[in-house]
Amino acid sequence: MASLSWRRALRPTPTLEQRLVGLSLALAGLLMLAALVLPLASVLIRAFQDGEGRFVGLAHVAAYLATPNLAAAAWNSFWTAAVTMLCVVPAAFAYAYALTRCCVPLKPLFRAVMLLPVLAPSLLPALALIYLFGNQGMLRWLLMGESVYGPIGIVLAQVFYCFPHAALILSVALSGADARLYEAAAVLKAGRGRIFATVTLPGAMGGIVSASVVVFTLVVTDFGIPKVIGGQFPVLATEIYKQVIGQQNFHMGAVVGLVLLLPAVAAFLIDLWAQRRQASVVSGRAVPLQPQPRPARDGPLFAFCLLVAGLLMGLVGVAVWGSFIRFWPWNLELTLANYDFARFDSAGWGSLWTSVRMAFFTALFGTVLVFLLAYLIERGGVGGPLPRLLGLAATLPLAVPGLVLGLAYILFFNDPANPLGFLYGSLALMVLNCIIHFYTVCHLTAVTAIRQLDPEFESVGASLRVPIWITFGRVTLPICLPATVDIFVYFFVNAMTTVSAVVFLYGPDTKPASVAVIHMDEAGQVSAAAAMAVAILAINILLKLLHLAAAGRIEQTTQAWRRR
Amino acid sequence: MRRLLLAAFAALALSAGAAEAQNRTRLTVYTALENEQLAPFKAAAERAVPGIEIAWVRDSTGVITARLIAERANPRADVIWGLSVFSLLQLEALDMLEPYTPPGASALRPNFRSPREPMTWTGMDAFVSAICFNRVVAQSRGLPRPTTWADLLNPAFRGQVAMPNPASSGTGFLTVAGWIATMGEAGAWDFMTRLHENIQVYTHSGSAPCNNAARGEYAVGLSFDMRSVALRNQGAPIDVIVPTDGVGFDLEATAILRGTRHLEAARRLVDWTVSREANELYGRYYALVAHPDVAPSVQNYPPEFAQRLVNQDFAAMAARREEILREWTRRFDGKSAPRN
Questions:
Q1: Are residues B163 and B231 in the same domain?
Q2: A232 is in which domain, residue-wise?
Q3: Does A232 contact B202 at a Cβ distance shorter than 8 Å?
Q4: For residue B44, what are the domain limits?
Q5: What is the pLDDT of residue A280?
């Protein structure tokens, strides 16, 4: 705080640089307004309107509160989210810790496998869980008579699905560390447990909080998993599905959407609190921590990573096998016929190409936007409410169910009075929708990476009269390049697998493969649906392999300073 | 001068392109038809109606209906072809359908067309509530083969039945509406209360009960008759039973969307959809079509199928939908943990 005011005192009149930063922030604000705030407002306002657009006050809210079993649904949402969070965050922390702070073999492999759940459309784990634990399942006895259709299935599927989100944030949080702190602690004869508790954990606290918040919010707002595997176990998120898809009641859907925004607001407040406590890990004088081999620690962690990776691969493996069989469980003969997509869907393989184009543009524009905006918010040196408001806007999308976002885009962009209406029905709008839909985790990743850098870099740059964009290009971006590439990959793979929002936005010629998967599954062509999902997975794995190959080069050219 | 010539050429090229586009009007058609029906329906319509091109947007009934209503301010579809009549009645109530009586529509069965003058929708075919029955699972658990709805109340079926949640799925609502039409208001609620004892799960998706019955997850899944064809072709050991004690049914229907920019072409398409030729096409997939003179060619249906259909008042049911769902939710939704 002191250094901030000191910096401001040094530069009393706004320079060209500050004006540019301010202008960029204002532009970003406009974009957030048009792509997120106004569309959301156009759907959420319906919570207070009747069919003719008249204001009805809290009538819908009152009707919603009178829904039978609402308390049970809210409690179910809360406890499944809490249990998932308590399973995922420690496991993801141990996994990320092994990858960043220890000397375990096969690190690149573990890094790739970690992302497997986000690489695969959600149909694959759902199918795998049915094949394994369903009433005809191969491992049904493991559940000891309990049914997988209910809280057990929800938590299992959510743990699988949320793991990569948490692991991604935590491995970024743990990747920056100042070796001097560890040396000082060792010199002071602190035990390993004490070092862990006083150096490692505080350094990663921001990441842990972010990961917890992300996992909790994901579980509360996701309706895909409860819909498929939750049976009739009532949760809040399926209410949206009931209202919007089951009964086309957008007013009640808007009310539930509003309720589901509460976790996001809470998340923002928690994140704000954590931010105040988080100190920069990598100061200008930092010496990067180089993990040293220690078998007593590395051995068990390696075993743990093997176990987690094995479980993740096993679940996906079952589903991949499911794409090659005729019909579970009556005809397990292997076949390639399921990959002849033209037999099941007139677009055939074409929908995969649509998906690839959509995912590529989402990743390209999304990464640029996320990283620039995160940097300007964190280090732009602009005071006032705008950066904070943009930070709030960036955390909002996580709490917006895709269904609500898709509906919001129809209502806003299809309005005859909207000058942006020409975008409607185009791939560009689907790209914009995907960028916003997956914004939050990318933003948190970027922020975590940027916060680890000492603001002194900017201060020194400023006192040397180096413009901020030069500091950004020469220092921040290279140091954060691995995180940037992670964000690109995250955008791409999520855009490949997403359904809930784009299902409202695709046109006759722009049906994505992920939607085709759902259609085939609904039509009873389960194996073909699995095959299309596996094709999506294969493209995502291919990108991930490219990423790994590139990461080696990036590491050599931009991260050499981390080595000693 | 050169510039003028260029401009003239450009204008010529543009008008030529426009003429070509006018030759074939691209109609955006929203539908919930099954995937495998899209290609034959498109081919047949484009052959029979010169100068149109069909661009499908296909999704499940709930998604397509939600999309249509959300797009109400600025409709994007020209024609709806193959959507539940209940959805069309919702759109009619929002004044979203273009009134138009296609020539020949009066030849359709009276309960298969809009009672308004001019009509707002025309029916194509009926699909009925049915029981998807897994023979293999039934045999291993010693379950009798049901032939009526009442048979499902047998305590042997405890925890063996899945049905769509009517609050989440149009299929589910149709099933409930059919029971109310067959058994009367009080009888239907009494039936559902007793059936509730045998239900394993109320699913959110309309297709899940039959799909999962085919996989052996449940012995019995309540769904629509047409769901099962693809499943049986893949070797699923299921039978589709149309109960003999009366079944509710839904119509697939056609309508023109108010505000279409291609009204003339849309009318020509709809004219064809009520034709005898089009009804023969529907008859390849459905056992009862709108045109009374067309004998459906689809296999595996009992000959007296049409007699089992209850007399269904679609408009009355659509009007009471909210009330029925509230009562259903109060009684059954999320009331019990899933059983095994």
A1: yes
A2: 74-239+302-320
A3: yes
A4: 15-126+249-302
A5: 57
In this prediction, residues A558-563 reach a mean pLDDT of: 69
Contact B216 A73 (CB under 8 A): no
Residue among B167, B210, B211 whose CB faces A246 most closely = B167
Using a CB–CB cutoff of 8 Å, tell me whether B207 touches chain A: yes
Give pLDDT tens digits for B167-211: 988 889 989 999 999 899 999 999 999 999 999 889 988 888 999
Residue labelled with tokens 């010199």: A187
Q: What is the 8-class DSSP label of residue B334?
A: T
Q: Which helix (H) or strand (E) holds B124?
A: strand B122-134
pTM (two decimals): 0.87
Q: Is there a single domain that holds both residue B158 and residue B235? A: yes
Asked if B188 and B322 sit in the same domain, the reply is: yes
One domain, residues A470 and A371? yes
Is cis: bond before A329, omega within 30 of 0? yes
Are both B168 and B189 inside the same structural domain? yes
Helices (H), chain B: 2-23, 35-48, 61-70, 85-93, 135-141, 170-196, 208-214, 228-233, 263-273, 276-282, 305-308, 314-319, 321-332
Interface test with A, best of B26, B63, B202, B257 (most A CBs within 10 A): B63
- DSSP class of residue A472 equals I
Across residues B304-321, what is the average pLDDT?
85
Regarding whether A564 and A462 lie in a shared domain, the answer is yes
- The closest CB to that of A326, out of B63, B204, B234, belongs to B234
Say if A28 falls within a structural domain. yes
- Chain A positions touching B28 (Cβ under 8 A) are 507-508
For A439-457, how does the pLDDT look when each residue is reduced to its tens digit (9 = 90+)? 988 998 898 888 878 778 8
Which residues in chain B (71-110) have CB-CB distances under 8 A to chain A? 71, 73-74, 76, 90, 94
Shared domain for A19 and A125, answered yes or no, is no
This complex has an ipTM of: 0.86
Beta carbons of A518 and A503 less than 8 angstroms apart: yes
Choice between A117 and B1, residue whose per-residue pLDDT is larger: A117
Same domain, yes or no: B169 and B146:
yes
Mutate to test the interface with A, among B41, B143, B158, B205 (most CBs of A within 10 A): B205
pLDDT tens digits, one per residue of A55-94: 888 888 888 888 777 888 889 999 999 999 999 999 999 9
User: Which runs of consecutive H residues, i.e. helices, occur in A176-235?
Assistant: 179-187, 192-195, 201-221, 224-229
